[in-house]
Amino acid sequence: MESNKKIEAIELFRRANKNTESAKILCQIAFDMSNENVDWKIVKKIYVLSAFEVESFKRRAMDQTIDGNGDINTQITKTLDTLITTDMNTLSDKRLDNPWRGAEAFHFLLLCQHQLNTGDWDAAMKTSTRLTE
Length: 133
Fold this sequence. Notes:
By secondary structure, the protein is mostly helical. It has helices at 2-15, 19-34, 40-65, 72-91, 94-97, 100-118, 121-132.
């Protein structure tokens, strides 16, 4: 029942254009699922959804500043203000600082597992080294 409420909250935040809030919830869901016995592909996909939410927020914020009205100095000021605001909104939560990090980690984990299963020991060792980063 708890997951249904989280999904409803994500949908509500998306409709309200609160992409960073929905991204935070998605990150929390993915983190909670990673500690359970769940298919890693699903966790990776949830991290990707979270990253898309952050990218959508950034794209929407930049689109609002570039409207073609006013002189170049006004446009530059608006763009800088938007960039600062965007950074402040995403840096308030460490998970949103680099939203692709979780998806990347699970990608390398899945790749390493596949390489171990196929007997490609050298590639699995290199991938696991990359995964520890």
